[in-house]
Amino acid sequence: MTSSQTSKKQDLPATAWAVLGLLSFPGERTGYELKKWADSSLRFFYWSPAISQIYAELRRLEELGYAVSARSGPEEARAKRRYAITGAGRAALAGWASDTAEAGPPVLKHGLLLRIWLGHLAEPELLRAMVGGHLERTRVELAAVREAMAQADGVPQWAFPALALRWSERQHLAELELGEALLADLAELDASGTGAPAADRQGGGDAPTPG
């Protein structure tokens, strides 16, 4: 491996390792198939990169010698390029997965909570509707997680992905519990009069920050 390749290896983002990870399971896959798998697995606990990003990472991985690709033959109506991990790629991925360095804290960007934080500018019924919509979407996502879990059940090579999906199931159940508690908090706030319509609220006072 050249010094340039070594530098690029060190600079690989987590998404590149995730794409290479998708290739580490048995079989060869197209970029489209990798995207479908990311949508039914990775997105429940990390995120699902766009198809354009998947192809960009595949090109990078090929340049590093971590992946190879080949176009399908004339037996297929539409030519497809399928990707597979190389021995060097598997070794590099194993090294990254076994790295004991701190993986970093989980990053939470909760759009609903950002709006709740600005609830003094919104109508109480609108806030409750937002939470209700969030709960419904979470239930849909939970069903999708459980469908993915059912597909992985009993497949030996998917034992560890199944553990990640089981964690995601618990996370979605916790999100539902938190959402229901938030609805109760909003109702309590409304009953106290603090959650009055935005136009009826009076300003004043310092921001709730320490110091």
Break the fold down into its secondary structure elements and pairings.
Layout: H1 3-10, H2 14-23, E1 29-30, H3 31-39, H4 51-64, E2 67-71, E3 81-85, H5 87-97, H6 111-117, H7 124-152, H8 159-192
Antiparallel strand pairs: 1-3, 2-3
Give a short overview.
This protein is mainly alpha-helical and 211 residues long. The protein has helices spanning 3-10, 14-23, 31-39, 51-64, 87-97, 111-117, 124-152, 159-192; strands spanning 29-30, 67-71, 81-85.
Write structural notes for this entry:
- This protein is mainly α and 211 residues long.
- Helix content is 58%, strand content 6%.
- It is built from eight helices and three strands; from the N terminus they run ααβααββαααα.
- It has helices spanning 3-10, 14-23, 31-39, 51-64, 87-97, 111-117, 124-152, 159-192, and strands at residues 29-30, 67-71, 81-85.
- The protein has a three-stranded antiparallel beta sheet with strand order 1-3-2.
- The longest helix has 34 residues, at 159-192.
